[in-house]
Amino acid sequence: MSERKVKLYKLCHAYCDERIVVAQKAIESLQISANEETKSSAGDKYETGRSMMQLEMEKYSMQLEETIKLKQTISQIETVVQTDTVQTGCLVTTNQGNFYISISAGLLKLGDESFYAISPASPIGAKLLGLKVKDSFTFNNRSYTVQRIE
User: Is the dihedral of CA 121, 138, 81, 97 positive or negative?
Assistant: First the structure.
């Protein structure tokens, strides 16, 4: 397996870990704020504040849940994929950029190289799946040609 693919795999794990920590800290902070909040004589203001905190708590809880699922997904990816066709776990080089078919983690940098960690269910990921070297496709009026699959 390529060293670049191992590093990208680890970057995706780190991406998930970081998002989990951020969501957990936000939830913890909101919980502390909610516990410290005391009911004032302005009851409506108090209730509005608690409602807004509850909405924020739900938002961060959903983000945490989604990120845990992402981490489970990346953990299940076969890192030793050797194939002639693009599939989950592949590092794909095209004339328009490099793609790591894994999870939607966005732009990842390895030295001076850029890679887009994308889900196989994303629009461009779906177009890449099953392609072989020299196969082409069009996405957003741009022509892509697969140059290498790792």
Answer: negative
- pLDDT given for residue 1 in this prediction: 56
For residue 141, CA distances in Å to 7, 85, 137, 144, 148 come to 31, 23, 10, 10, 22
DSSP 131: -
**Can you say how many angstroms the Cα of residue 150 is from the centroid of all Cα atoms in its chain?**
20
Q: CA dist 117 to 30, 69, 88, 114, Å?
A: 31, 16, 11, 10
The tokens describing 82, both together, are: 């050797």
Structural domain boundaries of the chain? 3-75, 91-149
Q: What is the pLDDT along the chain (150 residues), one digit of tens a residue?
A: 588 999 999 999 999 999 999 999 999 998 888 777 655 545 555 566 777 888 899 999 999 999 999 999 999 887 766 789 999 999 999 999 999 999 999 999 999 999 999 999 999 999 999 999 999 999 999 999 999 999
Q: What angle do CA 66, 67, 70 make, to 5 degrees?
A: 95
The Cα 84–Cα 131 span in angstroms is 8
CA dist., res. 64 & res. 44, Å (int): 30
